[in-house]
Every structure is written in C-alpha cells, then in structure tokens.
C-alpha cells in the first residue's frame, strides 16, 4: 500500500505533527540554536522562548504557576519522573496503588517497584472497563505513598473519575500523593488541575500533534519531588540536560 492510499485513524497511538507546530519549531533548529543557559543574548533569547512555552503549558494544564510545569521527553518519562520522584523524596511509606489497566510506563514501573520491596495493590475494572473505585478507596491506608490512575484508557477510551479519586484518596489519607496519566486525555478533555486534589499529571506531545520526544509533567507546588536526572540547573533542578527549545516552543494562534 502506498502512502497515498493510507487512511490513518490511530490517533491514540500517535498523531501527525501539525504544520503550524513545525513552522514555529524550524527556526529554533537552524537560526536560534543557542544554548538557553548561555550568558549572552543568542542563548538568553531561547531561555525566554522556554519561559513563554511554560506559561502556555501552565494554562493548558489549568495550573496555578509555571513553576509547577516541567518539560520531559515523553509520557513515559513524565510517569517515571513523578512516581520515582515522590518515592525517592519520602521513603516513609511502602504501599502503592494503581490500576490493572495502566499503560506499560506505569504498570511495568510498579512491577519493578515491587521487586524493590514496595507492596502494590492493583485495582481492576468491570466488564465495561470502568474502574472499581470502591475497591481502590478500601485499599488506601496509612502506609499508602501513592495512587496512580490514568485519566482516559488508551484501548477502551473509558474515562476514569480522577478528580473524585484524588479527593476521596486525600480524605482517607491526606499524605497519599496522586499521579494522573493524562496522556490520552490531553487535547480531548479540558484540564483544570488547580481546582483538584491531583498532585501530579503527565502528558505527551505526540498524542496531540506535537513531535515525538516532548512531554510535560505538572507537579503541585506543595509536592516535594526528587530529580531522576541529576546535573545542571535546568527545569528548576528537577531534570538536568540542555533544554529542547524547538520542541518546547509555543504556537501563537
Ligand atoms: C495512557 C498512556 N500513557 C502513557 C503513554 C506513553 O507515552 P509516550 O509514548 O509519550 O511515552 C501512552 C502511549 O501510548 C499512553 O497511551
């Protein structure tokens, strides 16, 4: 089959880069390629471009402050940064909860955490793919460090009541953190994290017309997170590495 005949409908797997996205990115490869950390204007200009982009993503998440927004390379990295980051920052609790239908980037990380000594409760879904929330609430206890739950399922499209889950979990244990994998929800459901009890939320650009290789993580300002990648001061010391300026650049519509 040639490309001409291809009718692509699998936008949950990935999407085509929007032409407007490509257009705003291109000059940052060929013209404005300075290092954002450089002390001279050629780099400083790019630091401002990232600042603007962070503001846009803050609004996209419905977050309170751009300081709550971190750029990552994927939805998988956002999940790992959030989950590992929380557990490394506070080792006082060893119980975790997630669902049986999470994407591999959460599920396989939890399997790994089990090997490292954490107790994990996996919550199931019914025959319609809906989460058994009562089972989830019953599992929360004083040792529960984290609850991870996807917003929309990548295979069934079922939407989980993540705001209600976060609120209920906090009412049982206010110290339990909640991570929401919003990779399949972003761009389809309006996000409004500041008016919820959700502590962290991850998204991935390639699911909604940005290139592969860019994601973002929202972390509520009150939440302490240990960095996964240690090095320079980038991303407020939470993720070292020279910033991916073209991929973070915002589109002016
Ligand atoms: C629900 C969900 N979470 C996370 C991911 C991982 O995102 P990425 O491909 O950016 O690592 C995917 C990708 O398919 C997904 O569908």
Explain the layout of strands and helices:
Elements: H1 19-25, H2 27-30, H3 41-61, E1 69-72, H4 75-89, E2 95-99, H5 104-115, E3 119-123, H6 133-139, E4 144-150, H7 162-172, E5 177-181, E6 200-204, E7 215-219, H8 245-248
Tell me about this structure.
It is built from 8 helices and 7 strands. It is an alpha/beta fold and 253 residues long. It has one domain: Aspartate Aminotransferase, domain 2 (3-Layer(aba) Sandwich). It has a 7-stranded mixed β-sheet with strand order 1-7-6-5-4-2-3, sandwiched between helices. Strand 4, helix 7 and strand 5 form a beta-alpha-beta unit. The longest helix is centred in the N-terminal third of the chain and has 21 residues. The site of pyridoxal-5'-phosphate (PLP) has 13 residues, from helix 4.
Note the run of SSEs as H and E: HHHEHEHEHEHEEEH
Mean pLDDT: 95
DSSP strand count:
7
Distance between the termini: 36 Å
Structural class: alpha/beta
Main sheet: strand order: 1-7-6-5-4-2-3
Briefly characterize the structure.
By secondary structure, the chain is of the alpha/beta class. The protein is built from eight helices and seven strands, in the order H-H-H-E-H-E-H-E-H-E-H-E-E-E-H.
Descriptive key words:
single chain; alpha/beta; Aspartate Aminotransferase, domain 2; 14% strand; binds pyridoxal-5'-phosphate
């Amino acid at each position: 089959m040639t490309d001409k005949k291809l009718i692509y409908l699998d936008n949950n797997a990935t999407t085509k880069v929007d032409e407007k996205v490509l257009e705003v990115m291109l000059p940052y490869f060929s013209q404005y390629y300075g290092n954002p950390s450089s002390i001279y204007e050629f780099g400083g200009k790019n630091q401002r471009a990232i600042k603007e982009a962070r503001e846009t993503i803050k609004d996209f998440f419905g977050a309170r402050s751009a300081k709550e927004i971190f750029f990552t390379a994927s939805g998988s990295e956002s999940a790992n940064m959030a989950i590992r980051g929380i557990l490394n920052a506070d080792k006082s609790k060893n119980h975790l909860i997630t669902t049986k239908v999470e994407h591999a980037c959460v599920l396989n990380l939890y399997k790994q955490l089990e090997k490292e000594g954490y107790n994990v409760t996996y919550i199931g879904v019914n025959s319609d793919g809906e989460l058994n929330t009562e089972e989830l609430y019953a599992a929360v206890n004083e040792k529960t460090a984290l609850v991870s739950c996807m917003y929309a399922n990548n295979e069934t499209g079922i939407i989980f009541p993540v705001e209600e889950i976060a609120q209920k979990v906090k009412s049982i244990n206010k110290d339990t953190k909640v991570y929401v994998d919003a990779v399949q929800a972003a761009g389809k459901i309006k996000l409004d994290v500041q008016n919820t009890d959700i502590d962290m939320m991850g998204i991935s650009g390639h699911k909604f017309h940005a290139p592969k290789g860019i994601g973002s993580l929202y972390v509520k300002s009150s939440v302490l997170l240990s960095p996964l990648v240690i090095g320079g001061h980038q991303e407020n010391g939470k993720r070292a590495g020279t910033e991916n300026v073209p991929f973070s650049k915002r589109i002016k519509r």
